[in-house]
Write the structure tokens for this entry.
Amino acid sequence: MNTVGALKRRPFATLTVDEKRAVVKLGPHKPVVTIQYQTKAGNVQNQKHNPTVNPMDNFLSAREWLTVDVEDKRLYCFPCLLFAKKRDTCWVETGFHRISYIGSSMEKHDQAREHRSAVIDLKLFLRRTNHFEVGSLISMNSDEIERHNNLVCRNREIVKRLINAVIYLAKQEMAFRGHDESETSVNRGPFKELLSMVAKTDSLLFDHLDSSTVFKGDSKTIQNEIIALIATMTRELIKEEVKSADFFAVIADETTDVSTTNQLTTILRYVHNGQLKERFLGFDNVSEVSGAEGLAGFILNILKEFDPESKLVAQTYDGASTMSGRTSGVQARIREVIKRAIFIHCMAHKLNLALQDATKAISKCVIFFATLSGINAFFGVSYKRTAQFHKSCHLHQTTELAGGKRKPQAASSATRWAYKSRTKVGLDLGWSSSTVEEAVTQLKHLEDNKFADIYDCKVDANPPETQLKFCKLLNSESFTNFSKKDKFPDGILADLENSVYGSLFNTAALKDQLGYLYNSNMPGKLSDLAKMLYECDLKNDLPQVYRLTNLALTVPLTLMWTTCVVRNKLTVSATTSGTVVEDFG
């Protein structure tokens, strides 16, 4: 370990603390070797170097720092070999072999600053490492070990409280910092004020905030680091869930925030452990990304870490031509790369369009919404009119408008649901109750199924792809019929086999497992079916059916043939993310 050859192969700086201590304790390696050298007359002679008997006037034995390499038969400086920062000298790099000049060379090396510094470092090394080496904890007495462990546990508990504070503010969508966070400020910002409030009932946190001088954990840098770490861990969790899922779909939309920054919202939809998940990945600035080609590349880059080539089965956007264009839209460009990533128009946007057309087709609804817009336009132009509006609301005990802070807002866009229920309630209790009641009645009891007809018309205008007909295989209302002899849906199964998803299934095995499903008492609701297959470990007995249910759940839509249209009633369920997740049965 202390030989020159060993220290060349593994430099001293790369050794562990315990290995370094062992090398220093062993000291210079001084074996008996024969060194070949050239005399001043040019003759080559051999000089045997023996650390105990030295015929060369004790030059070699007089230097404690001298060591010999048995491989190249040259002399080296042991302290410099270990600690010298300048390593291009012959005593460290190549070895000294000019024995004729050894006396003057050693004298010169003794006086070198680099050598003296290395000798001092060598002599102090053992003393220093007695205090700082990792293994020294073993030699501590029990009290020191206990104090160390208690300090570690205390610090961990403090960090837990800091993390909990960050999570709380993030979940409440609150700002972290304040305008004035100095010690004399009345309001030091949400994060610091939250820690102060918790510290009133938490003695551990109180002592830390009161006595800590090095690390309090309430600085903006620590806040940002904790936020970044939580985001990284959340994304890694999503990545692990998607990794275990059979498929996933992407849901994306662009929006402009208050700072006029164009942001892309990305959501992944997949089935994990038998349960449907929709996970928000984040906002990405796409202000400098132009055109469908740029957006498509940007989305594919986001999805790169989730293995989209083998798992992406659907993509959902709004109806904007940039996103949904059949030839050069984002969806078309992504399908050029991933064939089975079919495009599905967001069903929430379709419902929005249907509602707009429904209100236009009912005269009283048209009058109602025109009245709302007119009220806003009339009262908004004058503060005196606004004051009179607030006064009228107080007189009529309008609870929602009593604070004098609200009035009906006009729709800013044809694609926005700008009219809120609170506005309707306020006017109902004010002076427009009769008009609103009639409009609500019309919405609840649409004559001649007008709304249902309009909705069907909108869906027919953007029909689901024929690639999705396989979902009929999991329509629980047909299970009884499919279980009868000669009633098995072979045509639908053939459609699946010929679709872009055909390569994902073993058709023969799927048919056999579907036959068992149709004859069993399985849950009719698709989400319940997937959950039961997973929890009862039937996913191993019915793997093709489980895979099919996962695919049907992952695709973000409610198919038009499963939408329940009854006289004067249309059942449509939507998630908060804007895509329909209610399933069949």
The two ends are 75 Å apart (CA to CA).
